[in-house]
Amino acid sequence: MVKRPRGTRDFSPEEMEKRRYIEDVIRKVSDSFGFREISTPTFERSELFIMRSGPEVVDQMYVFKDKGDRELALRPELTASVMRFFVEKLKNYPKPLKIYYLGPCFRYERPQKGRYREFFQYGAELVGGGVLDSDVEIINLAINVVRRLGIKSFQLRLGNIGILRKLLEGSSDVNESLKFITTEKFDDLSGRLAADGLSDKEDTILTLAKLKGPDVLQQVKGIVGDDAPEEVEYLETLGESLKGYVTDDIQFEPAMVRGLDYYTGMVFEIDCWELGAERQICGGGSYSLADVLGGEAIFSTGFAFGLDRMVLVLEEEEFSFPGKAVEVYVIPIGEAMRENARGVLKTLRENGISSDMDLIGRGPSKNLDYANSMGAKKVVFVGEDEWSKSSVSIKDMETGEQKDVLLDQLVDVLSK
Ligand code: AMP
User: Is 339 exposed, middle or buried (0-12, 13-18, 19+ CB in 10 A)?
Assistant: First the structure.
């Protein structure tokens, strides 16, 4: 038997219903914020990601040659593709451009709960807006999606990678130094700073790396001093703009570094502690990517959610997902009634009532069991006696109540 590849999943109808619920909320909320949906290919020229996504993502990439000897990659993330699309086609749209997307991404990772080789992201980007307003809008969208989904327990963590970038100015490889900070390889960092003649910044960086909390910004100001005053001030202003309006519960992390190399300013993550190690459901920030991809520099800010982790949090919080079962199941009583039952089914479907009918020729009680297991709310029996009186019999599967209804009133009764 051929098995599915490690790190991939099949989704049952029940699982797809949960995912559909999440996608529906995402689309509703994004639309209501004035974002418009786009879609890009699942594979791209591999150089697109090599150019900007950072070594961590590139190591995990699925790269292959096509028959024309082009080197392609399954996308490990979507922002690079979206910005390529922007530079190629969308750059003349009125600004600010507000877009979102949903789709699969691929990374060769060690699979575990919440971490897969094929996973699904929902992301949004805001291109060409004012800095503060755009950052507030994008975080507001992310928080609203979380709330509207019904996720109860989450935390916003907020930083400004501009602070570290400023402190590392003059470094021969800023992104590598940032990586030493995020992976806590402080000896390597120390060596790099010494080689770059930046040892005087080491204490500041190490102190910042440990500072996290809702009230750390005054301390941060003291530590950073004149090295990056505007960057710290921006973080403070952003925090103020979000408080009371978007969320009061903000954890500031002045030395937050995100995995992808292209972030330049505000960075944020949303965590759900119930998920343990893979608790990060969303990550984002402002970045400079259009210029790297051959376009003009333009302020951009965005985020990406892991859709799979949204499902896991809601399951963990025992959220009751709305079901998608058919509403009405039609049962002919005896073969002679089958044709009439089909007519009833046709009428229901034409009137937008989700409905299904026996397709095996089971007896009424077996059919009732089936309708029950499918979660149908109502059953319509098409029997000879009732039919002779131009009626059918409706059974409410919740209350067990049964009553006859005239055929020409059936749609009205079922639509109520
Ligand atoms: P990133 O593109 O690494 O910033 O990831 C954005 C979001 O995608 C994360 O916050 C996760 O929720 C999700 N994510 C990233 N990698 C995986 C993975 N391998 N499996 C499932 N979700 C992932």
Answer: exposed
pTM confidence score = 0.92
Residue from 60, 79, 115 whose mutation best tests the ligand 1 pocket (most atoms within 8 A of CB): 115
CATH 3.30.930.10 in the chain is located at 13-316
Q: CA-CA distances (angstroms) from residue 78 to 217, 294, 393?
A: 32, 18, 53
Burial of 221 (0-12, 13-18, 19+ CB in 10 A): middle
Q: Report yes or no: 123 and 82 within 8 Å, Cβ to Cβ.
A: yes
Could you tell me the distance, in angstroms and rounded to a whole number, from the CA of residue 46 to the centre of ligand 1? 19
CA-proximal residue: ligand 1, atom 4 (nearest) = 283
Q: Tens digits of per-residue pLDDT, 284-297?
A: 999 988 887 888 88
Summary mean pLDDT of the chain: 94
Residue closest via CA to ligand 1's atom 20 equals 115
pLDDT score of 290: 83
Q: Which residues neighbour 116 within 8 Å (Cβ) at sequence distance 6 or greater?
A: 7, 8, 9, 109, 308
- What residue owns the CA closest to ligand 1's atom 14? 306
For 13-316, the fitting CATH number among 3.10.410.10, 2.60.40.3210, 3.30.930.10, 3.40.1440.60 is 3.30.930.10
Q: Rounded to whole angstroms, what are the CA distances from 301 to 96, 220, 243, 328?
A: 11, 24, 19, 46
Q: Which CATH class is domain 328-415?
A: alpha beta
Ligand 1: centre distance to CA 267 (Å): 15
pLDDT of residue 54: 64
Closest CA to 139 of 235, 209, 212: 235
Cα atoms found within 13 Å of the Cα of residue 212, Cβ hemisphere only: 11
**Higher model confidence: residue 229 or residue 238?**
238
Q: Name the residue with the closest Cα to ligand 1, atom 11.
A: 306
- Who lines ligand 1 at CB under 6 A? 77, 107, 109, 114-116, 119, 121, 259, 280-283, 304, 306, 308-309
Domain(s) labelled CATH 3.40.50.800 in the chain stretch across: 328-415
Among 8, 154, 309, name the best residue to mutate to test ligand 1's pocket (greatest count of ligand atoms within 8 A of Cβ): 309
pLDDT at 396: 96
The count of other CB atoms within 10 Å of the CB of residue 2 is 4
Atom of ligand 1 nearest to the CA of 281: 12
Residue identifier of the C-alpha nearest atom 15 of ligand 1: 306
